[in-house]
Every structure is written in structure tokens, then in C-alpha cells.
Amino acid sequence: MAIVFPTLNHPLRVPLAAEIHSRPPIRLEAPERITHLGIFGRNEPEENQTVGVQTQLLADLCIHYGVTPPVVEAKYFFHDFGRFRLKWEGHSEFASFTFVSSVHGELKSEGLFDRMPSEDLPQEWLLRLQGKLMVATHIVLESGAMPPDEAVPHMRRLFDGNPIVGCEASQAAQVWTDFQIHASGFVRFVVRDAGLKGQQAGRLVQRILEIETYRKMAMLGLPNAQRASPILNTIEAELASQTATMVDMDKTGHKGDEEGMAEEQLLLERITSLAARLEQLAVDNSYRFSASNAYFKLVHSRIEELRERRIEGVPTISEFM
């Protein structure tokens, strides 16, 4: 029996059913070149603006190419611009722009990362990202299997002699990187497709991009930890001193009721001050540390989804992390 009366539905039934399909991976077929940008910042309007910063960046890019921008409430956008395909996603603390361009003919090792999609982006638009760019990644998706004993020296040359990280992934691919920011300003990955089927290539590339993005977002907690560490050390030293004072007071007893009460009051004030400083430290850092923990769990989740297999002589992505 078909449900012919839409009024039977809960108001959220259809939107919730659509949500699981709202961020599909881009369909990829090797060879492809991918540029991924992670723009830090919440999607909130700047001064004298009514549209969020991230939404405005997307709209300006669309307008530049004569494409109708999505509605301001959009959290996901995909469009084929001709020169490249763009996938945009809005998140709570950042937005991601993934540009994909197909390669006609075979990729050559020399200049493998030349003619990336980023070269087609307008300079005036890129300049608007000043101080906001958190992630910049190039991925080259190429086809064909390469034996690991041949791949390792080849990849070491390709990554300028840097220590490389690599693995076999998704049972039919190899992933290579050095996790270094190169002279171009981008972290580079090479993905070799040795028989990925259907949407596997798109899902694999999406996981790699999410690993790179979320690891950077997780590291945002590091400056907070570095600032908090000396403060915690100071509080710890002061707490040890007050504890020693309490022990001495218990051993010696009160010199007199009035004098003893004054010492106890002073000790209480010091302990209360330490507690207040600790509480303030927790308030100042709890959100950032919680966010870092959540991002780091996502990194490990995406690494597990790669189903890595070791390539002799190089660490896997999991080991590197």
C-alpha cells in the first residue's frame, strides 16, 4: 500500500531522510587533479553585511563565472563550471572548497602537479582568503598499478626526497604523501587507482581530504595547551605550597584562637583564588579542547575507513598520525 497522503508525514521526515544523502562524494575517474581549500571561520556576517562570510565567498566565485549562487541557507553545493567541478561544504568552524579537473591523456611524472585547478581561480578571489586559509591540498589521481618496490623510490623523487608516508588502501589503490607544505603552499597527495570501482575513488579521495582537514582543525588546540601549561605549572606549585602549609598547621596546632583563625582565613582565600583561576582556565579552553578531541576522533575514523595495508619501507598514515 502506497502512502498517498503527504499530510501523514511528520514535518521532519523528508528533510531528515534527505540529510544522509546531502554530502555525497564527487564521482571521480582517473586521471583527475584535485585542489582542496579549507577556509577557517564561522559563516557569520562581517560588519555592514547581511550574508555570512563563507556564503559570500562562494557567491562571489559563482558570480565571477556567471553561475547562479545557492541559497544563503545552503550547507552543500556542487556545480560543473566547465574548467572544473566544485564541491562546497559549510561546517560549523570552516568551509571547504574542492575543485576537480579531468586530465585528457596520460599523466607524466614530470610536472605531475602542474596545471592544478587552483591555477584557474581568480586572483582577486584568492586574495580575499588572507588570514583564513587553514588547509590547502593538491591530489593527483592517476590510474595503473605500480609494484611497491618500484613505487617507493619513484615517490621519494616525486616528493623532493622528503620522508614519505604511503599505504595500499581500499584494496585497489595506493596513497602517497609527505604531509609537507611545498613551495606552492600546498600539501601533496598521489592516489594510484589500480581498479577502484563505482564511487570508490571519490570516497577514497574524500577520506584523504577529511583526514588532512580534520588533523589541521584538531591542532588548533595546541596553542591553547601551550598557553595553559605554564599557568597550570604555577597553580600546581602554589597548591603544593598551600598543602604544605596546611600540614604544618595541623602539626603545630593553633598559636591562639584569633591568630589561628586569621591563618586559616588567609589559607582559605589562597585556595579559593587557585580554584577560581583553574575554573577560568577551564572556561577559556573547554570548547577548543573538546573540538580538538572531536576532530581527532574523526581523523582516526577516516583512517580506519581507508583499510590500510602496509607498504614495506614506509610508515602508514595511521603510524604517521
**Order of strands across the biggest sheet?**
2-3-4-1-5-8-7-6
> With helices defined by DSSP (H or I, 4 residues minimum), what is the helix count?
8
Helix percent reads 40-55%
Order of helices and strands: HEHEEEHEHEEEHHHH
The end-to-end distance, rounded to whole angstroms, is 52 Å
The backbone outline, from C-alpha atoms, is globular
**What is the domain total for the residues?**
2
- The secondary-structure class comes to alpha+beta
What is the tally of beta strands?
8
Radius of gyration: 27 Å
Low-confidence stretches: none
**Strand percentage:** 15-25%
Average pLDDT, to the nearest integer?
90
Largest sheet: 8 strands, mixed
Give descriptors for this structure:
alpha+beta; 19% strand; 321 residues
Description:
Helix content is 44%, strand content 19%. It is of the alpha+beta class and 321 residues long. It folds into two domains: 24-218 and 301-320, no CATH class; 221-299. Strands 2-3-4-1-5-8-7-6 form an eight-stranded mixed sheet, sandwiched between helices. A hairpin with a 4-residue loop joins strand 2 and strand 3. The radius of gyration is 27 Å and the shape is globular. The mean pLDDT is 90.
